[in-house]
Specification:
heterotrimer; A alpha/beta (about 325); B mainly alpha (about 260); C alpha/beta (about 325); B: about 260 residues; mainly alpha; MetI-like fold; 10 helices; about 70% helix; elongated; C: about 325 residues; alpha/beta; Rossmann fold; 8-stranded mixed β-sheet; 4-stranded antiparallel β-sheet; 9 helices
């Protein structure tokens, strides 16, 4: 495997909530390789957004990175000062969020916002930037770009607003893009268009994309590799093929068993789905223990060591570790 | 916050303990500074200021509550109707509200008292009218918001007649801002009544009312009998402060519940 | 053939937004038979939720008939309508918003029974919460003390309280995590069997619809563009819009090859009503005849498609008359 672009090791994030501290992230480990689309998949409460915010160091004041390392292109992100991190944000790592219209400045025209990004990161003059901005907007699939550039965010549809944000990201030419559920609330047909666009852009620019989603269908179609998160922990990391064909972690298995497919109307079997239970954020072992059908003693207290099943497939599970012995 | 609430409540519901009748004059003991016998001193007629302050408590508080409650009830009812029915009714009501809100509440109360005459019920009515528009606005706003929410539809869908939808479902969920406003108006009403009395409108001497007392005491500022205006003034300030603290606490509590 | 439980004919709904008129529903006709689950699918703005609200009479219809068990709901006085409401209920989209925040679960569930004179004891409420996998103690909780999934189940319980014959569900699984969806679907199917319910599911999540519905209707800009048995519509989509919609849904299986059918542009808001097919401005296969009103072409087995491409379908048999009554044949 090539040298990773981003390496996250043993990341632990504690959040203070009314005098109590909770480890929202515990022992998060994953890599993002250069020039790939990496998926971070999990349900609500799994910690995927917090992970992204940790990478960008955009955490709320109550949150604190208690442990771990984040290496980006050789730099230790956690060791950077705030001014240094500001230089990294935008120009090297950029992020787009869920609600595209909320991320745009409502008082500035769309084209001007893209132009601003260009002037900031590529040192263009205003005229050059405005021309380039129109070009970029066209490039991301906005028809009649010159006219649209003059529109204000509230005049744009959700899909178009997201395209504008993608254009702004392109303007910065970052090495790593982070997209947090970029198509929530958008129609399915628009979603498909946006993901096709993201894939094109990623391939063209050669950047890596960390795509955060809860939708395994999206992971299957858009990502090269994927990490599965649950309750603030990484359960498994693999190439997409490997994950779907040979899921190893019990959570992954059950998750795949409970998804519904639109192309197959199979009989529903809830017995292989995930049991009802509240998410255990207290445990320092494997947090899936209270819902895992194969739970062992060690699961409650110890984080499992990683086990490599193949070049690109690693799982964090005591059961799998036992089986190997 | 809640401590102050209790403090205020307890301290003020005990005006039964006044040692002297409020209007009993005592010519020998005029303008005495505070002492063991006259805890807050006496005024120019020899009346015990302490007793007067205590008696005034009952009066001022009843004014405050009357004003606040009547403004709240009338305002909430009108606001609910306005918000629920919309259309022409709503427009008409809102135009009236807009006109009334153009005037500062105190000025409005002043004007109304002038028109109606200087009696206690008139003062209550005048101040109340000045505050009704606020309640209308607040309740109407909430009503508009709540009317389109899914539980309102659900209420219709399970078979509620319109009046029940409004009374059981919409109204209880529209009243929170109005409740908070209620606590604030309690404080403001006292300030307004006192202010009016200070100006010579509404409540007049010899009635024992904090504003009246401050007015009388104001004449004595220069001559140095500080006790004549300080204690009633302090009473006003403290109660207004206490009410606004309660309002804050209430807002936090209710906001948390409705999340 | 049995009589349909619900029969909607030529439903139109327009409303004003400022100076413009929005044509939300433009001539929808559908039937729902006892014991069947029907899906109404489409993206945002297609009119599916508005259609449901019209059926439930939460909105006034601009034109059209809605017959429930033979009675035209648009023509009866409000008092009679209220009495009939016990037979058709709705589960709303947002579990947080659809429960009165000031009422306990107990009061919320008791209300429908009381309104229709069906309340007899606490036992009914206990049975109701157990049926949706909640505990007796949940009855005394307020909505903000429940999780999203729990609130949703209260909504389902509420709809079932008066043992209705028809339940309309608006996006029942869209706010839920993947691991919860399957449980809700299993529950809904069980309830359907137990109470012999008819369902109308409104959703943009086609994978859930696939597993819940016997028949499905695809809507676009206020019109039904394709309808039929679920397997027919999903495995053999014929209308261009249906094809585009299905091809856009990501499939969680990397071995499946996808062929995307793309539509030009974005879904317009239904401000103007064009004669002809609703998709004409975005369709890559548009022809002259698409600009004129498009009839429904019958592919047999209840599979009807309002698209000229249906004529090229192997199952198409030209008939001389205008399309017959909708519903399974």
């Amino acid at each position: 495997m090539p040298e990773p672009l981003l390496q996250v090791r043993s990341l632990r994030l504690d959040v203070k909530d009314h005098e109590q501290s909770r480890s929202v992230l515990l022992d998060v480990n994953f890599d993002v390789l250069p020039n790939e689309v990496m998926g971070l998949v999990g349900e609500s409460g799994s910690g995927k957004t917090m992970t992204a915010l940790s990478i960008m160091r955009l955490l709320p004041p109550a949150a604190r990175v208690a442990e771990g390392r984040m290496a980006f292109g050789g730099q230790d992100l956690l060791a950077l000062t705030e001014p240094e991190m500001r230089r990294v944000r935008g120009s090297q790592i950029a992020m787009i969020f869920q609600n595209p219209r909320a991320a745009l400045n409502p008082l500035m025209r769309a084209g001007d916002q893209v132009a601003r990004a260009l002037m900031l990161h590529q040192r263009m003059t205003r005229e050059e930037a405005q021309r380039e901005a129109i070009g970029l907007l066209g490039h991301v699939g906005i028809s009649d770009a010159a006219a649209r550039a003059r529109a204000y965010p509230h005049q744009l549809s959700g899909g178009m607003a997201q395209r504008v944000l993608i254009a702004m990201m392109l303007a910065c030419r970052p090495k790593l893009l982070i997209a947090d559920e970029p198509t929530t609330g958008l129609d399915v047909t628009i979603q498909a268009q946006i993901f096709d666009l993201i894939k094109e852009i990623q391939a063209e620019v050669g950047a890596s994309l960390l795509l955060i989603t809860h939708d395994l269908g999206v992971v299957s179609e858009v990502c090269h590799r994927v990490a599965v998160m649950y309750a603030g922990q990484i359960m498994e990391q693999a190439s997409v093929f490997s994950l779907f064909q040979r899921p190893s972690h019990p959570y992954t298995e059950r998750l795949l068993a409970s998804i519904l497919r639109v192309d197959k109307g199979a009989e529903l079997d809830a017995s292989r789905a995930i049991a009802f239970a509240s998410i255990d954020y207290e445990s320092v072992g494997c947090r899936f223990a209270n819902r895992c059908p194969y739970v062992l003693e060690a699961c409650w207290t110890q984080r499992p060591e990683p086990r490599w099943l193949a070049d690109d497939h690693v799982v964090f599970c005591h059961l799998r570790n036992r089986e190997a012995e | 916050m809640f401590l102050i609430l209790c403090y205020a409540a307890v301290a003020l519901i005990g005006p039964e303990v006044a040692p002297y009748a409020p209007n009993a004059t005592n010519p020998q003991a005029t303008l005495q500074s505070p002492s063991a016998e006259f805890r807050f001193g006496t005024d120019k007629f020899g009346r015990d200021i302490y007793s007067r302050v205590l008696y005034a408590t009952r009066l001022d508080l009843s004014i405050a509550f009357s004003v606040a409650l009547s403004a709240f009830l009338i305002g909430a009812a009108v606001g609910a109707i306005s918000g629920f029915y919309g259309g022409g009714v709503d427009d008409a009501i809102m135009r009236v509200v807009d006109v009334l809100l153009a005037f500062p509440a105190f000025i409005l109360a002043m004007a109304l008292t002038g028109i109606l005459g200087d009696t206690i019920p008139n003062v209550i009515m005048a101040i109340s009218i000045a505050y009704i528009p606020y309640f209308i606005r607040l309740t109407r706003g909430e009503m508009l918001r709540v009317r389109t929410m899914q539980f309102a539809d659900a209420a219709v869908s399970v078979g509620n007649p319109s009046w029940r939808v409004v009374l059981v479902h919409l109204l209880p969920n529209s009243l929170t801002p109005a409740f908070i406003q209620l606590t604030l108006v309690l404080g403001w009403a006292i300030l307004d009544a006192a202010g009016l009395a200070f100006l010579g409108l509404g409540i007049t001497p010899p009635t024992a009312e904090w504003g009246v007392m401050v007015a009388e005491g104001a004449q004595r500022i220069i001559t140095g009998e500080w006790w004549t205006w300080l204690f009633p003034g302090l009473a006003i300030v403290l109660i207004a402060f206490a009410f606004s603290i309660v309002g804050d606490g209430l807002r936090d509590l209710l906001a948390r519940e409705e999340r | 053939m049995t009589e349909p439980l619900l029969r909607v004919r030529d439903l139109h709904k327009q409303y004003r937004e400022g100076r413009t008129t929005i044509h939300a529903v433009n001539g929808v006709s559908l039937d729902v038979f006892p014991g069947e689950a029907v899906g109404l699918v489409g993206e945002s703005g297609c009119g599916k939720t508005t259609t449901a609200r019209c059926i439930l009479r939460l909105e006034e219809v601009t034109r059209g008939r809605i017959e429930f068990e033979g009675t035209d709901l648009t023509a009866i006085p409000r008092s009679r309508l209220r009495a009939r409401r016990k037979d058709f209920q709705m589960v709303f989209q947002d579990p947080s918003e659809s429960l009165n925040p000031r009422l306990s679960v107990r009061r919320t569930l008791r209300e429908p029974l009381q309104l229709h004179g069906l309340y007899s004891s606490d036992e009914q409420l206990r049975a109701a919460v157990h049926r949706v996998n909640l505990e007796y103690e949940h009855l005394d909780r307020l909505p903000h003390q429940l999780s999203g999934g729990q609130k949703q189940r209260v909504g389902v319980a509420r709809a079932m309280m008066t043992t209705p014959k028809l339940v309309i569900l608006d996006e029942p699984t869209s706010s839920l995590d993947m691991s919860l969806r399957i449980h809700v679907i299993v529950l809904l199917k069980e309830l359907q069997r137990e109470l012999n319910l008819s369902y109308i599911f409104i959703s943009h999540d086609l994978s859930t619809i696939r597993h819940l519905c016997d028949r499905v209707m695809v809507m676009y800009l206020g019109r039904i563009v394709e309808q039929g048995r679920t397997a027919d519509v999903f495995d053999d989509p014929t209308h261009v819009y249906t094809k585009a919609l299905l091809s856009a849904i990501p499939i969680p299986d990397p071995t499946v090859k996808r062929n995307r059918l793309l539509l030009r542009g974005e879904t317009p808001t239904a401000r103007r009503l064009e004669p002809g097919c609703a998709l004409q401005d975005r369709c890559a296969f548009v022809a002259e005849e698409c600009r004129r009103p498009v009839p429904e072409y019958d592919l047999g087995g209840g599979h009807r498609v309002a698209c000229r491409l249906a004529k090229e379908h192997p199952k198409y048999k030209p008939t001389a008359q205008a399309p017959a009554e909708p519903g399974p044949n």
